[in-house]
């Protein structure tokens, strides 16, 4: 009977516990039956209620299950596009084997082909090859030797020699002796002794061969092995001698007198004085450099302070002129609803500079990128009272009290233009015939480019200047016209201005007899110019004789068209924003004329009763334009409302004391700026009747305002053009409404 197992004495076999006999008390003892029953109950299997009851035949039936190495996650019908064949082809199916981990082995079997090849190569060259750290595995079998009695006894220890890879021969001999001693101890009787001796004799040649083979297969040490052929040869030292030509020698002799010594001392003293002056100059240069550095730092600080003061000044001015700022944005004259075909102008700010009070406003231009910034040129139209200085001032409506940028020149500034792509580049034309280009982002005191020399300038006053499109090589260029009758093209090179004469304006039928009897062609002085908005090679030039020449940059000796426009000098020309074939001109003969391209006669003629200084088309309407006269009045026309007279005539300055010279429309908001002869620029806002928009018809609500403005102008022009016989004018359903 098994007793209750003690602590540490039990041994578990197949879920049961057994123990050695051990007394639990003084009277001995055995196992506890209750504990055994409880343990057996815990080992019983619980059978679920819904388990199937199978028969012995069903339980004994063998069910074959086939396991396949097919990977179900691999896509079998994957296709890729082949650019070589130009179609989709099936991609090769990857294998089903998934490698989880792989290590590169470094062991070779002694009987393998690679192992035998390395052994043979090492035998041929006489020393071991620098083989990789491979381990050669050798297998040997023990032989069974039969005794005299016919009973085969198995040799356990002595028959197997595991010392094949030993390095020393002494170790091998000791192992052999131990093997022999073991065989002698295990033998029993004479028969067994003789069998052991026979086995010993048979094993001796095998052990010798194993020892020889182990010597040949000895592997080299990979860490301190070095081949003789790879050792670096130490070159012996050698001496190199060179021989040069000895330097030339000369003999010198002289007498040393007292005055020679004196002169040498005086020369040495003069040199020391020069060195002192050089040191003083160096110190002075260092002081000047420090002063320049300090002045540069102070200038940078002043620029920062100036910018802060400009922002503060704008804030103060906006608070002071708060009512005018609201009118500038939101004023609408309610009286326009009760007067049909008439409008008025609301004066806003006045812009002026203290140093230009006695100068004339010679040109006004809005910046193409910043709608609230405009440039004003100051010079003189009275050639008998020319000033010694001129100004180009850039004002903004955010600060009417002082200009943001000021450029001062040595003579009057007669015209200017701002580059449409680079709004910081401003070019000006001067009264003396020179031109200059300024960069507004840098210091405005010095020009970026300026014309120099007699041949690189106009002979007389530059009346108008215009930027041109960039050339094929990317150079920026502009054009200018002057009273000398020449149109120049100026190209901004790397270090200078390159000038080319585009055309020289000669009068048609202008051949007259000269003083010496030769024929002389009279020139026609240019007074204004404007480029065609679509064809950039075509431009119009107004002259002092009253003619308008249509020219091209591709032809320098022929006019495309000549318009006998005015009886006196042509002051300004401007193309319509919606129809590039329509342009307007004004002159000193009190006339404003509307022209169509390639028609010798004007479409509309208006007499304003005074010399017209400037005329411009409105950017928001195809039939609205404005003009200023020397009487100090602004005339606004809308040809769609009234084809015979202006719908607004308003005096801006006193008639006897002042004259209006230039005007310009704002490109975004409905207001204009006009300049006078006293150096004052006034801003005026247009009433609703002066900026009417076109309402689309009910069946054409999809039409945009540009298309409607073009249709309105074409309808107007069809009424004044000479139509062929039998042609009818198609009525337009568009009507004009207030904006």
UniProtKB/TrEMBL annotation:
Top-level taxon: Eukaryota
UniProt keywords, alphabetically: Cell projection, Cytoplasm, Cytoskeleton, Dynein, Microtubule, Motor protein, Repeat, WD repeat
Gene Ontology MF terms: dynein heavy chain binding; dynein light chain binding
UniProt cross-references to Gene3D superfamilies, sorted A to Z: YVTN repeat-like/Quinoprotein amine dehydrogenase
Subcellular localization: Cytoplasm, Cytoskeleton, Cilium axoneme
Composition bias, Acidic residues: 144-158, 166-193
WD repeat copies, ranges: 563-596
GO cellular component: microtubule; outer dynein arm
Region (Disordered) location: 1-36, 111-215, 271-291
Signal peptide: none
Biological-process GO terms, alphabetical: cilium movement; outer dynein arm assembly
Bias (Basic and acidic residues): 1-12, 111-120, 272-283
Pfam family, any one: WD40
Principal place of residence: cytoplasm
Family as reported in the entry's similarity comment: Belongs to the dynein intermediate chain family.
Protein name per its UniProtKB record: Dynein intermediate chain 2, ciliary isoform X2
């Amino acid at each position: 009977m098994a007793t209750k197992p003690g602590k540490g004495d039990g041994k578990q076999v197949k879920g049961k516990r057994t123990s050695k006999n051990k007394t639990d008390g003084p009277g001995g003892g055995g196992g506890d039956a209750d504990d055994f029953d409880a343990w057996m109950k815990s080992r019983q299997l619980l059978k679920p209620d819904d388990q199937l009851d199978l028969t012995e035949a069903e339980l004994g039936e063998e069910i074959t299950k086939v396991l396949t190495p097919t990977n179900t996650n691999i896509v079998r019908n994957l296709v890729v596009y082949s650019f070589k064949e130009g179609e989709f082809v099936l991609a090769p199916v990857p294998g089903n084997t998934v490698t989880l981990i792989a290590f590169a082995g470094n062991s070779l079997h002694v009987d393998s082909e690679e192992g035998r090849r390395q052994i043979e190569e090492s035998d041929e060259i006489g020393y071991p090859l620098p083989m990789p750290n491979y381990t050669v595995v050798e297998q040997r079998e023990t032989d069974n030797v039969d005794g005299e009695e016919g009973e085969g006894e198995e040799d356990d220890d002595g028959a197997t020699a595991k010392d094949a890879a030993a390095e020393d021969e002494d170790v091998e001999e000791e192992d052999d002796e131990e093997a022999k001693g073991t065989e002698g101890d295990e033998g029993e009787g004479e028969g067994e002794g003789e069998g052991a001796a026979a086995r010993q004799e048979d094993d001796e040649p095998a052990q010798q061969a194993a020892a020889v083979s182990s010597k040949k297969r000895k592997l080299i040490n990979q860490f301190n092995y070095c081949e003789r052929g790879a050792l670096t040869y130490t070159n012996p030292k050698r001496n190199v001698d060179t021989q040069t030509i000895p330097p030339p020698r000369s003999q010198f002799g002289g007498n040393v007198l007292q005055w020679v010594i004196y002169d040498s001392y005086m020369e040495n003293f003069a040199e020391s004085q020069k060195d002192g002056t050089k040191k003083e100059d160096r110190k002075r240069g260092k002081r000047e450099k420090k002063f320049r550095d300090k002045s540069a730092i102070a200038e940078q600080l002043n620029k920062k302070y100036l910018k802060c003061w400009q922002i503060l000044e704008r804030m103060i001015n906006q608070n002071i002129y708060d009512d005018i700022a609201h009118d500038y944005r939101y004023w609408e004259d309610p009286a326009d609803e009760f007067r049909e075909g008439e409008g008025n102008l609301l004066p806003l700010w006045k812009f002026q500079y203290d140093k230009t009070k006695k100068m004339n406003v010679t040109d006004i231009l809005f910046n193409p990128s910043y709608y609230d910034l405009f440039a004003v040129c100051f010079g003189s139209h009275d050639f008998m009272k020319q000033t010694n200085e001129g100004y180009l001032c850039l004002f903004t409506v955010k600060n009417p009290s002082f200009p943001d940028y000021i450029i001062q020149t040595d003579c009057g500034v007669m015209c200017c233009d701002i580059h449409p792509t680079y709004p910081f580049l401003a070019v000006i034309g001067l009264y003396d015939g020179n031109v200059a280009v300024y960069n507004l982002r840098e210091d405005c005191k010095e020009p970026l480019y300026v014309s120099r020399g007699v041949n690189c300038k106009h002979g007389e006053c530059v009346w108008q200047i215009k930027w041109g499109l960039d050339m094929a090589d990317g150079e920026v260029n502009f054009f200018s016209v002057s009273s000398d009758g020449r149109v120049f093209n100026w190209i901004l090179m790397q270090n200078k201005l390159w000038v080319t004469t585009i055309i020289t304006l000669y009068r048609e039928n202008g051949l007259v007899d000269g003083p010496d009897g030769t024929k002389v062609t009279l020139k026609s002085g240019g007074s204004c110019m404007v480029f065609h908005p679509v064809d950039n090679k075509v431009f119009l030039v107004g002259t002092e004789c009253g003619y308008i020449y249509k020219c091209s940059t591709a032809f320098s000796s022929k006019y495309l068209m000549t318009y006998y426009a005015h009886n006196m000098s042509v002051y300004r020309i401007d193309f319509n924003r919606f129809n590039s074939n329509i342009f307007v001109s004004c002159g000193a003969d009190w006339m404003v004329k509307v022209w169509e391209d390639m028609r010798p006669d004007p479409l509309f003629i208006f007499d304003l009763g005074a010399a017209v200084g400037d005329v411009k088309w409105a950017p928001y309407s195809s039939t609205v334009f404005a003009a200023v006269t020397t009487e100090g009045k602004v005339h606004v026309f809308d040809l769609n409302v009234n084809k015979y007279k202006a719908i607004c005539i308003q005096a801006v300055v006193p008639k006897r004391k002042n004259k209006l010279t230039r005007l310009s429309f704002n490109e975004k908001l409905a207001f204009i700026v006009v300049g006078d002869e006293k150096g004052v620029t006034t801003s005026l806002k247009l009433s609703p009747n002066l900026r009417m928009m076109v309402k689309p018809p009910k069946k054409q609500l999809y039409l945009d305002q540009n298309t409607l403005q073009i249709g309105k102008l074409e309808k107007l022009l069809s009424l004044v053009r000479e139509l062929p016989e039998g042609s009818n004018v198609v009525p337009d359903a568009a009507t004009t409404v207030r904006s």
